[in-house]
Every structure is written in C-alpha cells, then in structure tokens.
Amino acid sequence: MKRYWILFCGLLVVLLLVFVAAMALEIPLLTDPEPWMAERGFGTAAIGVGLLLADIVLPVPSSFVMMAHGRLFGPVLGTLLSLVGNVGLTMLGYGIGLAGRRRINRFVPDDECARAEAMLGRWGLTALILTRPLPLLAESVAIMAGASRMHPGKVMLAAIVGTLPAAVLYALAGAMASSMASGMLVFVLVVLLAGLSILFTRKKV
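RESULT FIELD:
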C-alpha cells in the first residue's frame, strides 16, 4: 500500500502547511478568540462550535475553546457543545474524503484501495478513537476514512467515543478554572489517556 501511505503523508503535509500559513497571517479569531468568547450566549456557543469545525483546516486553539465552553456554559452544556463541534469536524473530514474519492482512485491502484479499505474496516474505529486528541492526525484519519468509504454511523460513533473524554475534562477544567496551567494539565491527561488506550489495544491484539 505504498501509494496509499504516500497519499496519507501528503495529506498530513498539506494540512501542516495550511496550519503554518494561517498562523503566519495571525488571524485574530484564531490567535486569540477570547474577545469573541467572553460572555455566555447563543452567539458565543455558535462561534465556539464553528471554530471547532474550522479546525479541520485551520490552527484553532481547540483546548481554549473547549475550556471556554465549560467556563461559560457549565460542565454539562459545555461538554455537549464541544462534542457537537468535534464530532462535526470528524464528519466534515469524512465528507471531504468521500467527495475526493474519485481523485484518490486516479493515484492509488484498485488493489491498494481494497487493502486499505480492509485495513480500515478492521482498525479504522480504533484509529479514529485514538487519534481524536492528536492535531493533524485526527483530521487526516477522518478524511481517509471517508475516502475508504467507512460506514458513516461507525465513524460518528468512533468520533463520539474518542472526543467525549477530552470534552468532559476540558469542560470541567473550564468550569473550575480558566488558567493556562489547567488547560495544559488537561491536554497532558488527554494525551496520556490516548497513550494508555494504544497500549491496551496492543495487548489485546
């Protein structure tokens, strides 16, 4: 599956370049969304969810957004808003991959596509769950899941399972404190959870 992996790595590089370009432009809403997320309200909730959706291609400070959801809307509603945004991001990536399938087939031979689909059929849910907290990888895996025509219901379920721990932790941290230290602690906890899940999966295999 050489060409398939080349395509996957190329997708990672493209997303990284877009992220770098967006950071270089210093778009205020991306570099410092705090002024837009300072007060509780429908508009703020819409901005927060919209930013999480935009994270598919832009360097959105998603940890800040999810903490702001908890700080402004409480742990329950804050978790739900972050869940909607992150699951929506995964499904948006899935849609992009599904729409670009024909172009992918021009580059990747049919036999490689078949092997990739078989591999994602076996490991795709695990990959989607474990990569949810990881920037770039989460978006790339979601896009490739669409390109490989994984069942959308399974993709959504994996997105919910993979996103829920982070959404809960960030919402709780935001509800209790809004400091940078709290955000960094939650991020470390989320990464540790992903690492433990990987180890557990390997042992089960």
